[in-house]
User: Which sequence fits this backbone?
């Protein structure tokens, strides 16, 4: 691809507003997990307490994801996204006010994160289905890379900014900025109107769910990767994000943890520049090989938490994760019929996230029993092994790009 071809999606006005809306939201959202983590630790110095708050967000996401996919395909993705944005504005503003004023208790954050998780369950499948409605199929990799580039650029500064805010004025202000970004994202998303396309002969919510499940289980590459990420996300979302902050606090420091997460973002950003010019012929093969690189920071944090090696390892891991993210979205948006896409993403998310709350709830007690760093080392070994086993599937390893345009859908 030439540079001009790589930037073609931005010529569409609707995609530009979609791009801007997502970029503003990402800037606040990347700060929120760090602010939330240290807000919880300020209330109760316990990894188990942090796991409860994180699980409070993850559980509703898992419970309502399938319904979110059906609503997006049935009611329209724009409408579902905007309602979710409004709910997130209100809930994050309330969390920020409670933390800033010193009134926050653990149960407050549990309830608020449960509300946020429900909103995310509705918006995630809708958001993932928007891109193929905004750009032609030949521009899907470029569009996804541009979105990733914006995310990577903002994630570079987000974690460090959040960590400095936590140290300087407290975690509440990072949550307040996150609430503001949801509001700005709502406004920027207003012009992003797309046709509401539905499949002929819809059979109601139960029928829609059944059709989505039939497609999911009959598509080998889809369910194999989702099954793998059911375990990989337990490690990343459960063990890394629950045990990582306490280990970092006692070793490399809060600011150091921010630098480590920002290094991941730099790796993401650098890789997006490469992917603007390099086409992924086998997107899932490249993606799973990239995912394996995340095993290194898990092992380093468990074996020898030294700042500079961790920063370097997270830079490389970020590059690998970006390759998977772009490869996965391109595969989904090219291979899955448009009228089925939000439901396919909802089954993907359900399978990928269903066990994360278990990991978040068990990470603290397991770390207390075996030692936080011992658990992280075991997680690193397991993470790499799962990635290799996934590549053993020919359907995953040999999936090629498909660039021809699909037949027109019913509007």
Assistant:
């Amino acid at each position: 691809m030439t540079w001009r071809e790589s930037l073609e999606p931005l010529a569409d006005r609707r995609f530009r507003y979609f791009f801007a809306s997502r970029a503003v939201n990402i800037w606040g959202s990347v700060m929120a997990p760090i602010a939330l983590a240290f807000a919880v630790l300020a209330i109760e110095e316990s990894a188990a307490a942090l796991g409860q708050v994180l699980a409070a967000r993850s559980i509703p996401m898992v419970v309502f994801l399938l319904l979110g996919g059906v609503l997006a395909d049935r009611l329209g993705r724009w409408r579902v996204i905007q309602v979710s944005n409004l709910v997130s504005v209100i809930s994050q503003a309330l969390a920020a006010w409670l933390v800033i004023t010193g009134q926050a208790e653990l149960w407050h954050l549990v309830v608020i994160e449960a509300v946020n998780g429900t909103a995310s369950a509705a918006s995630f499948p809708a958001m993932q289905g928007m891109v193929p409605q905004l750009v032609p199929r030949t521009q899907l990799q470029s569009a996804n890379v541009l979105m990733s580039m914006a995310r990577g650029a903002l994630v570079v500064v987000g974690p460090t900014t959040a960590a400095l805010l936590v140290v300087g004025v407290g975690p509440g202000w990072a949550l307040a900025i996150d609430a503001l970004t949801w509001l700005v994202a709502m406004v920027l998303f207003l012009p992003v109107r797309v046709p509401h396309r539905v499949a002929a002969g819809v059979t109601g919510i139960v029928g829609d769910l059944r059709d989505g499940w039939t497609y999911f289980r009959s598509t080998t590459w889809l369910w194999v990767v989702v099954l793998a990420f059911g375990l990989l996300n337990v490690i990343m979302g459960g063990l890394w994000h629950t045990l990582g902050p306490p280990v970092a606090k006692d070793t490399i420091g809060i600011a150091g943890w921010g630098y480590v997460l920002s290094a991941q973002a730099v790796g993401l950003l650098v890789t997006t520049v490469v992917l603007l010019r390099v086409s992924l012929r086998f997107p899932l093969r490249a993606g799973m090989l990239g995912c394996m690189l995340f095993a290194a920071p898990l092992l380093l944090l468990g074996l020898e938490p030294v700042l500079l090696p961790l920063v370097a390892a997270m830079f490389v891991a970020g590059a690998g994760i970006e390759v998977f993210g772009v490869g996965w979205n391109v595969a989904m948006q090219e291979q899955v019929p448009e009228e089925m896409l939000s439901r396919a993403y909802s089954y993907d998310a359900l399978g990928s996230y269903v066990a994360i709350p278990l990991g978040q709830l068990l990470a603290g007690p397991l770390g207390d029993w075996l030692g936080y760093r011992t658990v992280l080392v075991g997680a690193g070994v397991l993470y790499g092994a799962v990635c290799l086993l996934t590549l053993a599937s020919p359907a995953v390893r040999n999936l090629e790009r498909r660039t021809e345009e699909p037949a027109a859908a019913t509007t």
